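Run log, item B.
One chain of 220 residues. Sequence copied directly from the ordering sheet:
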Amino acid sequence: MFLTIEKLLDPGEVQRLQEIAARVRFVDGKATNPHTTVKQNLQADQSTSDSSEASSIVFQAFRRSRDFEDFALPQMIAPPLLTKYGPGQHYGEHIDAGEIIVGNQRIRTDLSCTVFLNDPDSYEGGELESRLGNRTMMYKGQPGDAIVYPSTTYHQVKEVTKGERLVAITFIQSRLPDSLLREILYELGEVYAYEADTMSWENRNRLEFVQQNLKRLWLR
């Protein structure tokens, strides 16, 4: 199950991230994945104050997004990282690592997230492509939009043929690792949000009984 979040970032935040990206030092994307043979991109040097500011901006946007909280049920979020692709760069088909190490913490990667930071018309190629069975899904969001998807899915960033693709990426450890159970809770929450006011009080209480007690059973 995938979640697209329109306008996760407001225009001022997008502009600030673009300004940071224009001056921050970028390094080879293999710095965090030296053994890969399919990764050709650049990522912000994480040791700088600019990179820390960029990470904080995106992190705070996640924290205020009810859609993100309800969908991901986040326990830990890796520091979001500015990443860019120029002409000829791409990230071949892969599955994200099962865990990453941030400082002294290990983060299990249940979900991955891409936040788009520049106009999709300003570059050619660079689509995020995910494979679901025999179907492929392509994403190329507007500035400030985000997509959250299971880290277990095969996905890739298609080659950029013109311009520059600028995004922020991160990984999430969920309080509920099982993707099917997360989907059940999310769908129940959506039904409650859209239909509760039209139900009888008795049925509304029964729906909430199921929703809240499944959280007690499943969440950690």
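Observations after the first pass:
- The radius of gyration is 18 Å.
- The mean pLDDT is 94.
Flagged for discussion on Thursday.
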